[in-house]
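Protocol step 4 of 6: structure prediction from sequence.
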Amino acid sequence: MKKYLVVIEESKIGYSAFSPDLPGCIATGASLVEVKKNMQKAIEFHLEGLKLEDNRPPEPHCQSAYVEVAA
């Protein structure tokens, strides 16, 4: 089991998501719940495609952090 970082961004019409560890793997959704579900499916599909092409799934290497600053 691997754990990949997913970045979710809000837009005017919903949400979009991507994983920095999996270039080209993206998803959208009208709600947070939907975009998370769609991204889960997108990652699974992406990894299946890599296996079919005899490529190993990349190891997760991205991390997240919050930095607090006075604004």
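Step 5 (inspection) to follow. The two ends are 39 Å apart (CA to CA).
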